[in-house]
Amino acid sequence: MSQNTVARRTSKPPSPWKPVTPSRKLSNPNAVVSLNGRWGYIFTAPFFVMFLIFGLAPIIYSVYIAFFDWDALGTKVFIGMDNFTNLMADDRFWNAMVNTFDIWLMSTIPMLIISISLAAVLHSPFLKGSTFWRTILLVPNITSVLAIAIVFGQLFGRDFGIVNDIIGALGFPHVDFIQGTQSSHIAIASMIVWRWTGYNALIFLAAMLAVPGELYESASLDGASKWQQFRYVTLPSLRNTITFVLIVGTIGGLQVFAEPLILGGSYNGGDSGQFSTLTLFLFDQAFVAYKWGYAAAIGIMITVIVSIVSIINFYITRKLAGEKK
Amino acid sequence: MSHKSIFNKTAAVFTASLIAIGALGVVSPAKAIINCTNATSDGNGCTVLNILYFGDVIEPALVTAYKKIHPEIKLNYVRKDLDPLNGTILVNNCATGGMNDPDIASIEVSYAGYWKSYPQCFTNLNTMHSTDGNKSAADIKSQFLAWRWDQGVGNDKSVIGIPTDVGGLQVAYRWDLLKLAGLPYQRDAVSAQWNTWDKFIAFGKRYMTAVKSASFKSALTALTKSKDKATRDFYKTQAPLSFVDNVATVYASILNQGTQKYYADNGTPTGKTIYKTNPQVKLAFDTTVAASKSGIGARIGQFSSDWNVGMTKGTFATMLAPAWMMDYIKGQAPATAGKWDIANIPGGGGNQGGSQLAIPKGAKHKQAAWDFITWYLAPAQQLTVFQTYGLFPSTKTLYTSGDLVGFKDPFFNNAQVGSIYVKGILKLKPIFEGKKERCIDMAMGSALSLVINGKEKVPAKAFTKGLSDADKCN
User: Fold this and answer.
1) In terms of pLDDT, which residue wins out, B57 or B105?
2) A213-233 as b/e, with b when 16 or more CB fall inside 10 Å?
3) Residues of B in Cβ contact (< 8 Å) with A157
4) Is A193 a residue whose pLDDT tops 90?
5) pLDDT tens digits, one per residue of A53-93
6) Between A161, A271, A289, which is nearest B446 by CB?
7) Where are the beta strands (DSSP E) in chain A?
8) CATH number reported for the structural domain that contains residue B79 in this entry
9) What is this structure's pTM?
10) Which of A297, A305, B374, B431 has the highest count of CB atoms within 10 angstroms of its CB?
11) Are A160 and B238 in contact (CB < 8 Å)?
12) Pick from B117, B453, B472: which is nearest to A271 by CB?
C-alpha cells in the first residue's frame, strides 16, 4: 500500500501477500486442507479460551454491573441507567475527560514529530553504528513506569527540581508543575513522550526502510532536494504507519494511569484532581469509593470514547493522505 | 452471655487444650531439628501462615524473633504498596467465598468504616482462643485504647481486627529555625504559645514575618559563612522558607479532635451521615482555609520529592507528625539530627494512620494466625516495635511504663517523645466511622486543595463542592 503512488504509473507489482497456491503434487489436497483447519482451531484455542475467560467474560460482566448500585460486597441494586445519567452530570468525569485529552494531545503531537525525525536520522546512510542507536532507543520503553514517574516527579519538583533550577537560572520564577493544571499535564506528557518516542521511531524506521530505493533515485534525478525527498516521498509512504501509531497511541493515551498515579501519590489525580484521568477516576471510584457499578459505567464510557476517537483518527488520516495524491 | 456461647467457649478451650497437648506431644521433640525457613507449603511439621499487609505493619526483626519461638511456623508475608490493592484482594476473596484468603490481613484505618459493614468477611475474634494463655479478643480488649479498638469492631459487634500501632499526631518543628527567627523555641514554651489552632496560625505569621526580616537574613548569612563546613553547607537554603509544610494536614487534625466526623451513631449499624450539619467539619474546613490565607504553608505535598528534600533544607519549620513519621524524618534528613523537637499539637490530640490485623473468614490456619496476632500485638512486642521502628503502641497498658514514657530521642533534641505522644493520644475520643468515610474524606480534601492552591477563590463554593462530591460517595 505504501507504494501505490508509483504503482499506478507502472505495472502493478506482484503482491507479496498473495496466497501461494497449494502444491498439485499432493495426492489428496482436501485431506491436507481439512487437517489444517482442525489443527488451526486447536492451535488458536489457547488464545481464544483465555480471551473468553479473561477478556470477554469480564467485559460482559462489567456491562451487566454498570446498571447496578453495588459496593462490591453488599447486595446489587438495579438502578437502570442511573449510573450513566449521574456520570453525565458528574463534573469530576468531565474534568478527567478534559485532562485525559489534554495530556493525550500534548504527548501525541510532539511524540509524532520527534519520532519521525529520529527515524529519519536513523534512516540516514551516513549514520555510524545504527544498530547501537536503534537498540538504545528502546531503553526508555523497557524502563518501569514507576521508576519513570518517580524520576520525573523529582525533575519537575517546585523547589529542588532540575527543570525549575534551569527556569530559575534563566531568571524566571519557579513553576509549581505538580499543583498547576496545565503544568502538571506537561510533566505527565513528557513522561509519555520520553517512554514511547523511541519505540515509535523504530516503527517509522521500519516503514521508511520499506520505501523502495528507486523512488528516491528517480526523485533525485528529478532534482529533488533531501528535504523534498523526505516531504514528498518518505512522509506520504508513512501514512498507514502514522494511522497505526495514532490509533495505538490513542488507545494508550486515553488510558494513562500509572504516570498520574505515581506523580500525585494518590488516586484522585493530584490534590485537586488537576491531573485526574479517566482511568484514574475509574480506579478511584472502584477501589477507594467502592462504587463498582459506577466504575463499570466509566469503563464503558472510556470504550465508547476510544472508539469514537479512533474512527475520527482513521478518517482524518485517510483524508489527509488522500489530499496528497 | 448466652448458653450457646459458653458452650462454644468450653468447646474451644477443650480444642485448644487438645492442640496444646498435641503441640507438646508432637511438635516439641521435633523443635530442635525442625526448620521451616524454606517451606513453601504445609507438611513436614511446618505450617505456612500467609500474611497480607500494607505499609510497615509486619516488622522483620519480630518475624525473626517469632521464628525462634515457633520454628514450626513459616511466616509468608506479602506486602502491598498501595492500600486499595490490599483491600481489593480482600474484597475479591470475600466475594468468592474466601477460597484464597490469607491467614492474616491488615486493614488500614481509613478503610475501617467499610469493613465494619462486612464483618461476615472475617473471623469473629471473640470466638478465637490463643494456645498460649487461652485468650480471646474479649480477654485482651482492656489492654488497648478504646477508640483504637473500636476501629476493629464490626457493625454486629463482632471483633474483626486487633489494632496494631497508633499514629498519634504532634508537631515536629525545627527549633534552630525558630530560634534564628527570634521566636520561642523550647518545647514547653511553643506548646503553650500554640495551644489553639488560631494561635498556631498567629505564631506562623510571626515566623513568616521574621524570616523576611533583615536580622534573620543576616543571621542566616552569618551561619552560611561559619568556620564549620558542616554548618556552612547545612544552612545554604535555596528555597523560600515557610512555617508549615502543608496546611491541608490541619483539616484532618481538627476533625479528629471532635467527637463526631462525617457519621453519627444513631443506633443502627450503618449510622447516618452528618457531614452537612456537623459544625466540626465546617470548623475544620474554615480554620484550614484561614491557615492557607495567612500564607504560612509551603504547599508541598507530603512524600513528594520537594518535601523529602525540604526536610533537610528547612523549607518548612513545622510539620504535623504522627509517631511513625519520626522514623521517616530520621531516614530522609539525617543531617538535621538534634535540630528537631516535638511539641504538643494545638487543640489537644490527633491521629493519623494505623491498621488492624484480621483473620479473614476463609483463612486456613485460624488458630496459628490468632496465636501470632496475640503474640505480635501484645504490649511487650509493641514496645519493641516502638523502640526499633518508632511505631507507637496501641496498648494503653504501656502508657505508664517507664520504657515508653521515659523514652527520649536525641534526634529530636532529647524530647521525651514517649510521654508527649501519650498525652495527645489519651485525649482522643472514639469517633463513629461509617462505610464511606474515606471517600467523603477525599472529597473534602480535594475541595480544600482547590482553595489552598488558589484554584477557587471563594472558600464557600469549594465547601459546597466538597459536600456535593461527598454526596456522590453514596
Assistant:
1) B105
2) eebbeebeeeebeeeebbebb
3) 304-306, 309
4) yes
5) 999 999 999 999 999 999 888 889 999 999 999 999 999 99
6) A271
7) 68-69, 77-78
8) 3.40.190.10
9) 0.83
10) A297
11) yes
12) B453
C-alpha–C-alpha distance, residues B437 and B273, integer Å: 9
Dihedral, A263, A269, A275, A278 alpha carbons, nearest 10: 120
Helices A181-209 and A239-253 meet at what angle, rounded to 10? Answer: 150
A vs B, Cβ pairs < 8 A, gives 95
Burial of residue B81 (CB within 10 Å: 0-12, 13-18, 19+) is exposed
Q: Which domain holds residue B32?
A: 3-167+354-400
Is residue B2 pLDDT above 50, yes or no? no
Cβ of residue A73 closer than 8 Å to a chain B Cβ: yes
Give the nearest chain A residue to B119 (CA atoms).
A73
CA dihedral B203, B206, B208, B212 (to 10 degrees): -160
**B305/A157 CB distance under 8 A:** yes
A161 backbone φψ class: left, alpha, beta (φ>0; ψ -120 to 50): beta
Instruction: Report the candidate in B426, B388, B448 with the shortest Cα–Cα distance to residue B248.
Output: B448
CB of B304 within 8 Å of a chain A CB? The answer is yes
Q: Are residues B77 and B100 in the same domain?
A: yes
Q: Which of B400, B425, B458 is the last residue of a domain?
A: B400
One of 3.20.20.70, 3.40.50.300, 1.10.3720.10, 3.60.21.10 is the CATH number of A66-323, namely: 1.10.3720.10
Cβ–Cβ below 8 Å for B472 and A86:
yes
Residues of chain B with Cβ-Cβ distance to A58 below 8 Å are none
Q: What is the pLDDT of residues B357-380, one digit of tens each?
A: 999 999 999 999 999 999 999 999
Q: What's the gap in Å between the CA of B453 and the closest CA on chain A?
A: 7
Q: Output phi, psi for B259, to 5 deg.
A: -110, -15
Residue A254 in contact with partner chain B when CB distance is under 8 A: no
Distance separating alpha carbons of residues B387 and A315, to the nearest angstrom: 66
